[in-house]
Amino acid sequence: MVESRSVGPGTRIWAFTHILPGAVIGAGCNICDHTFIENDVRIGDRVTLKGCIQVWDGITLEDDVFVGPNATFAPRGRTLVKRGASIGANATILAGLTIGEKAMVGAGAVVTRDVPPAAIVAGNPARIIGYDGAGGGGGSFAPASEIPAKTGVSATRVNGVTLHRLPEVKDLRGNLSFGEVAKEVPFEIKRYFLVYGVPSENIRGEHAHRSLHQFLICVHGLCHVVADDGANREEFVLDSPATGLHLAPMVWGIQYRYSADAVLLVLASDRYNPDSYIREYSEFLRLVKA
């Protein structure tokens, strides 16, 4: 039963589906059997709902979203699923959350927090296990202690990001790793900060800088870093005080999967300035593609 008059051209609606009058549905959608859509619902173009799904008041699904069979949205909240996101079969999304652009929610996951853009989440409660296109999550990356093998700088597939093997001296008295400004660290250092005591399920970063350079060294334990230039994304494991990662301006950076003992040292090219931050991924993409 389709009571809404706001259904775009080319949208297919299958058997035993009920759409209330206030719902707005875009073009080219595929709404499969046994789906119920309430009034205060906005569905973009080319959205697929794979059956046995209830879309309650307050839910917005942007263009190119995929929702697998029997996925559950909790009612009574403003839930937003952004462009290109995918929600697996039997996943549960609590009310009032945002699923970021091109994020992927694994089958059966229970999502209790916002999901960042391009993140891959799984489990109950859902945790980030990787980032789409970054090479992580599936164990396809090598530990940073293996790349590069020799002292020096290695290019990455992300523009403005280089991986540095720092000089290291080992003997019976202990180990020493070091670097010099304008040599191993490719900018003048104006500030540093340490990140530690991060619960393993939490993520840090999720921003870019307009003009700031950063150099990251995990001096104890390990953490994962995802770097994104708007076209390419790559994941790195920092697990040695002899490994550094340089993030140039206009690189989106994320740190996650901290070990319990991780201590991340960040060297910065300027003093703290909140105006230098870009905190919305959509704004970052707009700026790098301008």
Automatic annotation (TrEMBL):
Record's keyword terms, sorted: Acyltransferase, Repeat, Transferase
Gene3D superfamilies: Hexapeptide repeat proteins, Jelly Rolls
GO molecular function, one term: acyltransferase activity
Keyword flag Transferase: yes
Segments forming domain Sugar 3,4-ketoisomerase QdtA cupin: 160-288
Record-linked PROSITE patterns: HEXAPEP_TRANSFERASES, PROKAR_LIPOPROTEIN
Protein's UniProt keywords contain Protein biosynthesis: no
SUPFAM superfamilies assigned: RmlC-like cupins (SSF51182), Trimeric LpxA-like enzymes (SSF51161)
Protein family: Belongs to the transferase hexapeptide repeat family.
Protein's name in the database: WxcM domain protein, C-terminal domain protein
Annotated organism of origin: Solibacter usitatus (strain Ellin6076)
